[in-house]
Specification:
It is an enzyme of class 5 (isomerase). Its EC number is 5.3.1.24. Belongs to the TrpF family. Residues 3-197 form the N-(5'phosphoribosyl) anthranilate isomerase (PRAI) domain. Keywords: Amino-acid biosynthesis, Aromatic amino acid biosynthesis, Isomerase, Tryptophan biosynthesis. The protein is of the alpha/beta class. It has a single domain, classed as Aldolase class I (TIM Barrel, Alpha-Beta Barrel). 25% of the residues lie in helices and 21% in strands. It has helices spanning 11-19, 38-45, 63-73, 86-89, 162-169, 188-199, and strands spanning 2-6, 24-28, 53-58, 77-80, 96-101, 118-122, 150-153, 173-176, 181-182, 185-186. It has an eight-stranded parallel barrel. Strand 3 (53-58), helix 3 and strand 4 (77-80) form a beta-alpha-beta unit. Helix 2 (38-45) packs across helix 3 (63-73). It starts with a strand and ends in an 8-residue tail after the last helix. 42% of the residues are buried.
């Protein structure tokens, strides 16, 4: 099982997550208490191994700004967490993760509209897009055919429930931010426990 830790703001957290086996790190460039500027993200990213995905998170940003931030920071994957349309998402040369808010089975129909490589399924939006610590009803995924999409499960995951989430959704990757924090700060022990628990689950191959 692949794991993404989102909301990285310092090198110590990034290195600790990598030592624990993380596959992707997320850097938030949208309005959020976890927001980081491109220059600071770049300093961290330049210290990271090449095989780890460096994901930049954006919400309803212009293509020009996204590409400029990618150039400055060194991110190599773009996560679009707003109201971006399919045409916009397919206009980048970078791999794209399109985040969708899932409140009901009907919301899953949006998956077919996007051709990007990854789809992130998150809880319904609150004050900010993502990072709310609230999960959606994973049972609605039981009978939905993902049609070869690389599904990333997010929203309300933590070290205690990540195995349940993986078993319910059978995703390609799990993504966590607030679920590995203590008093609003990344907790290295929780990060390690989350990664260990996620990677202990054998993912079913989708036929």
């Amino acid at each position: 099982m692949k794991v993404k830790i989102c909301g990285i703001k310092d090198i110590n957290t990034a290195i600790s997550a990598i030592e624990s086996g993380v596959d992707a790190l997320g850097f938030v460039f949208a309005e959020s208490k976890r927001k980081i500027n491109p220059e600071s993200a770049g300093k961290i990213i330049r210290e990271l191994p090449g095989e780890v995905l460096k994901v930049g998170v954006f919400v309803n940003e212009t293509k020009e700004t996204i590409e400029e931030i990618a150039s400055v920071s060194g991110i190599n994957v773009i996560q679009l967490h707003g109201d971006e349309q399919p045409e916009f998402c397919s206009s980048f040369s970078f791999p794209v993760i399109k985040a969708l808010s899932i409140g009901s089975l009907d919301d899953l129909s949006k998956l077919d509209e996007y051709s990007c490589e990854y789809i992130l399924l998150d809880s319904p939006k609150g004050k900010y897009r993502g990072g709310s610590g609230v999960s959606f009803d994973w049972s609605i995924l039981n009978d939905y055919q993902m049609k070869n999409k690389k599904i990333i499960l997010a929203g309300g995951l933590n070290p205690e429930n990540v195995e349940e989430g993986i078993n319910a959704a059978n995703p390609y990757m799990v993504d966590v931010s607030s679920g590995v924090e203590t008093e609003g700060m990344k907790d290295l022990e929780k990060i390690k426990r989350f990664i260990d628990n996620a990677k202990s689950v054998e993912r079913e191959e989708v036929k």
